Amino acid sequence: MTKHAAFAAEDAVTAVPPPAQASRLFSSFPPRMASDCKKAAQLGRMDLAVSGVLRAGSLVDSMKASSPRYSKFAASGDHEDWMEKHPSALEWFEAVQAAAKGKQIVMFLDYDGTLSPIVEDPESAVMTEDMRDAVRRVSQNFPTAIVSGRGRDKVFNFVKLEELYYAGSHGMDIKGPTTVSNHKMADEVLCQPATEFLPVIQEVYEMLTAKMESIPGAMVENNKFCLSVHFRCVDEKEWDGLSAEVRAVLEGYPDLCLTKGRKVLEIRPSIKWDKGNALEFLLESLGYAGRGDVFPIYIGDDRTDEDAFKVLRDMGQGIGVLVTKFPKETTASYSLREPAEVKDFLRKLVKSSVTKG
Questions:
Q1: Where are the extended beta strands (E) located within 41-143?
Q2: Please, are residues 31 and 39 in contact by the beta-carbon 8 Å criterion?
Q3: What is the pLDDT of residue 79?
Q4: What is the rounded (10 degree) CA torsion for 261, 262, 263, 266?
Q5: Contact indicator for 175, 189 with CB cutoff of 8 Å
Q6: To bridge 270 with a disulfide, which of 46, 97, 124, 260 should be the other Cys (CB 3.0-4.6 Å)?
Q7: Which Pfam families match (predicted)?
Q8: What are the contacts of 176-184 at 24+ separation with CB within 8 A?
Q9: Cβ pair 308, 275 in contact under 8 A
Q10: 116 - beta bridge partners?
């Protein structure tokens, strides 16, 4: 039995109730089932007017905005001002530590660009053994989830840690740990709110795959409940053609929406469910919803992670950490430059919890 670490509250005037003990599976908290999150997602379809869905006229401009060279040019004049608003989580670690003191940390981690570097071939986005060790140690101290746009099975094969929660397809496919313990929760699917879209997603995947064959470097990735059209290796001259092909396919599927990530176009069901909803669902499933002694930390690098950052901001609890080398519009509180700094931050967090635990 492992007790998840919380920072000590030596200076607190009122004692903070300790979090309930949990095994490495955190299974002393009753998990919510797929039907529960499906009902929540069906409370309202995604408002396409405000959801960040890409319109025809803005699609190529949005694709350019995800290019590092465009971002760097636009950010060159205000880097110092941006860093004042979003300081390094490493350099300001004592401030993070003070905010988390006496509270139960719950860790949420994106994968691509956060635990592994962004690479040209999405299938080669392998994390280092040092990073895997850092994540493993974090999970031994705090409840930990990987929240990724990747398919859940795929990101699990990259991370290879059975004691974590995995939220794939931007949170539309959540499953608990598969480590065997006295409180086994193996193969327990917690949340799949978009199951009805699976046939449509497969149909669109096959259509887009055929369309992208004529565009050198383009690749369509099937992430089960969503699709990713990667254009990182596509010549910029081909972007107009690529975006036109994607739009043409989606015209026949009004229940799907198109959003953008880092050098990738994302096709998702137009339900009201994203990484922010996944964060809320996991906190509730773990028994932490509505508690003031909880400190969620979400680390991510993509626009899709902003949904989780906004949830933390609205909760008034925890922090969001954006991984980026260039200034970006964000609601995250802190920043880290690259996965290597994420690893250092995780190790520092574990070391601090062990020292003060």
A1: 104-109
A2: no
A3: 85
A4: -20
A5: yes
A6: 46
A7: Trehalose_PPase
A8: 176/25, 176/26, 176/27, 176/31, 177/24, 177/25, 177/26, 179/24, 179/25, 181/23, 181/24, 181/25, 181/27, 182/1, 182/23, 183/23, 183/25, 183/27, 183/28, 184/25, 184/27
A9: yes
A10: 112
Confidence of residue 78 (pLDDT cuts 50, 70, 90): confident
Whether 152 contacts 169, CB under 8 Å: yes
Contacts of 318 (CB under 8 A, 6+ apart): 106, 294, 295, 296, 297, 298, 312
Give the CA-trace dihedral at 149, 152, 154, 155, to 10 degrees.
Answer: 70
> Distance between CA atoms of 92 and 113, rounded to whole angstroms?
21
Q: What is the mean pLDDT of residues 61-71?
A: 59
DSSP, collapsed to helix, strand or coil, labels residue 261 as strand
In angstroms, rounded to a whole number, what is the distance separating the alpha carbons of residues 321 and 4?
A: 21
Residue-level pLDDT at 29: 36
Beta bridge partners of 104: 6, 294
% residues pLDDT > 90 (the chain)? 65
Q: Which residues pair with 146 in a beta bridge?
A: 109, 166
For 227-242, write each residue's pLDDT tens digit.
999 999 999 999 999 9
HEC-encoded secondary structure of 174-231: EECCCCCCCCCCCCCEEECCCHHHHHHHHHHHHHHHHHHCCCCCCEEEECCCCEEEEC
What percent of the chain has pLDDT above 70? Answer: 75
Residue 351 has pLDDT above 50, yes or no: yes
Asked if 268 and 253 count as a contact pair (C-beta separation under 8 A), the reply is no
Give pLDDT, residue 355.
59
Q: Give the strand order in the sheet containing 219-222.
A: 219-222, 227-230, 264-269, 256-261
**DSSP, res 266:** E
The pLDDT tens digits for 132-148 are 999 999 999 999 999 99
pLDDT (0 to 100) of residue 119: 84
